[in-house]
């Protein structure tokens, strides 16, 4: 199992970038859920989730992402994913979540 970390960087009063390092799975998904909730609770309703350093995603992680998107939209915010890993992008495509999320590869 790799080391896991979540780091939140605030850009301005509305936007936060949440970076995930390591395996995002059943054992670690709650940490991401808390980080997203903390950002939203502090008024950062425009979330960019940076998965550039994420080595693994499972279905629990995808559920957290879906819930986060739903909550940000309910707060009139936005939720986008920065993802450079072709395997992760393929996972989003296979689950049709590439049609749900705005996914940037840049």
Question: Can you describe what's shown?
Answer:
The protein has 106 residues and is of the alpha/beta class. It has one domain (11-104): Transcription Regulator spoIIAA, CATH 3.30.750.24. 36% of the residues lie in helices and 34% in strands. The chain is built from 3 helices and 5 strands. The protein has helices at residues 29-41, 59-74, 86-94, and strands at residues 5-10, 15-24, 46-57, 78-82, 102-104. Strands 1-2-3-4-5 form a 5-stranded mixed β-sheet, covered by helices on one side. Strand 3, helix 2 (59-74) and strand 4 (78-82) form a beta-alpha-beta unit. Helix 1 packs parallel to helix 2. The longest helix has 16 residues, at 59-74. The chain is globular and about 35 Å long.
The portion of residues forming beta strands comes to: 25-35%
Please identify the top-level CATH class: Alpha Beta
Number of strands: 5
Radius of gyration: 13 Å
Number of helices: 3
Q: Secondary-structure element sequence?
A: EEHEHEHE
CATH topology: Transcription Regulator spoIIAA
Domain unit count: 1
Proportion of helical residues: 25-40%
Features of the shown structure:
106 residues, alpha/beta, Transcription Regulator spoIIAA, five-stranded mixed β-sheet, 3 helices, 5 strands, 36% helix, globular
């Amino acid at each position: 199992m790799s080391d896991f970390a979540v780091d939140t960087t605030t850009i301005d009063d509305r936007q936060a970038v949440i970076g995930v390092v390591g395996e995002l799975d059943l054992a670690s998904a709650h940490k991401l859920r808390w980080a997203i909730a903390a950002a939203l609770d502090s008024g950062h309703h425009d979330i960019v989730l940076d998965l550039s350093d994420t080595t693994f995603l499972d279905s629990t992680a995808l559920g957290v992402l879906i819930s986060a998107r739903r909550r940000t939209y309910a707060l009139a915010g936005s939720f986008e994913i920065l993802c450079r890993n072709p395997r992760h992008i393929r996972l989003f495509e296979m689950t049709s979540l590439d049609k749900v999320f705005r996914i940037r590869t840049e």
